[in-house]
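Put briefly, the fold is written as integer tokens. The lines below illustrate.
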Amino acid sequence: MSSSSYSLLSNSSDKLDAEISIKEPPTSSSAAMNSSNEALKKRYVQIAFAVILYWFVSITMVFLNKYLLSSKDIKLDAPLFITWYQCVVTVGICAVLGNLNKRVALFSKFPTFKIDLKIARDVLPLSVMFVAMIIFNNLTLKHLTVSFYMVGRSLTTVANVAFTYLMLGQKTSYKALGCCGLIVAGFFLGIDQENALGTLSMFGAFCGVASSVFVALNAIYTTRCLPCVDNNVWRLCLYNNFNACILFLPLMLIFGELTPVFTFPKLFNIPFWFAMTMAGVLGFSMGYVTGYQIQMTSPLTHNVSGTAKSYVQTLLAVVAYSEVKTSLWWISNIFVLGGSGLFAHVRATEMKRTHNTNNNNENNLSTLPK
């Protein structure tokens, strides 16, 4: 049972009076056990809800973005515009929740909506990485199949290890590097098999690698820029997306997306804008459901859940689009998933060992004679 479970049990409102517990110990013991079981059941329900919510939002967002980016029904070749609009939706949601934070208790954690240009400038390096990340992420989704999307973006862990060493000077253990090797093997085997099936886009594969690189850089710059917004994740989300809305405008002009957008036959189509808006809402919601799942479980469980979600997403895509895959194609997915899961386990074990060692050293120092 996790520490939060113990906290939940200890804070239970079903506490018995001390006098009753002395006179009737069997009843008191039974009531306490029932209370503990009820609290534990409640905890399991919360964990299951958090995982299901994370899976639903994440998988729905991937399929909806795929529909918007490359569906034959949409036929809008403007991925930058689609991504820009999602950032606008996020800023709009931040504005609404920021103005409700003092009226509705549920939104009390959201910062009051305010744009400080100095903070926006300080966050700009992160925003550049963020914009590059979501551009290449959506281009990967546009040019690769949903079933291959996971493998196409699987080098994030490898890029994270590389940049952690190059930028922060932190070394990675041989066990963790072995897990990275398994991921790399799965990636290249998947590329080979996708090419053999005739469904590989080399540009899409390149975008997948670029997306992995910028996801890793985005994580590092997020750590650096959080102090600029008083370590408030939602405030960082606001400034990041505000900057992105501005950065996308010249990019759309440079890549000639204004003409396709203004000549788009469904520009005033309500279902199209509903789908666009829902994609933006889901994009914003990913920040919440990710944090909620980590809060209800742990970072390691979140990684395991994300890995399992990716495999389910792949299976759903294969079934939904009636795709036929080879055995080696499936093996490449297993390599990627296995390597990612093992990497998370190895890093968690190493962090726990380091934490215990530091605690033992502190205890030993405190017991030394003065």
